[in-house]
Write the structure tokens for this entry.
Amino acid sequence: MSKHQSGNVRAKKHLGQHFLKDEDIAKKIGDTLTLQGYGHVLEIGPGMGVLTKYILQKDLDVTVMDLDTESIEYLKEQFPMEHPALKLDRLHILEGDFLKYDLSTVFGDKPFAITGNFPYNISTQIVFKAIEQRGQIPEFTGMFQKEVAQRICEPAGSKVYGILSVLTQAFYDAEYLFTVPPTVFNPPPKVDSGVIRLKRKENHDDIGCDPKLLFRVVKTAFQQRRKTLRNSLKSFDLSDELRADPLFAERPEQLTVAQFVHLTNLLA
């Protein structure tokens, strides 16, 4: 008898796993996908497939990726037995680390969406990798620790607005959809979770400045978020004219994405 015939995969702390057990919430997360502009979806961290089965009910090719061998074995063995009515011929199961995986080997140059109940310990890195590959990712939805979900979606002027907010919102429209309590997970995390949707902006391939320089400016500015830009951006060797610009008297969290784009062009 394989260890999976008991029907459970053990949640592993070092992988930041908290398995969703609430069917209604799984369905709600599946329904955050609009299916606009893509026919493929990548689910990161499927666990025992509670969300996967709702995505498979849609007109999509579904690839699931997990670093956890036990999850992958479970999905390959148990999933077909438990869900014989699902379109399992449209399901591709991959063992691998999303952060290191060459996704062109999976999707070629086709567009795909990303979704998942993301492992908390790598969730921000997942977003940054998606931003890097934004040319292929028109939509990104899923569940984060609430604080991270809020940070991604917050506007300028908020205490939690930061690097993640600016760089995500430069390329995507970010929407906080709903909050999820700890009780719907096994084991329950110590914090609430939040589900968001990112829809790629039409001008994502030309945001009005050099994206690489924007990344550098934003990261440098927020490394000393209490200081004015005049002080935090010293390493850019500011001219006297720039130092006198009123924009440089602001602190980074006061600047909108459009102002960061303008700032980047000034520094270019």
About this structure: The chain has two domains: 13-200, 211-267.
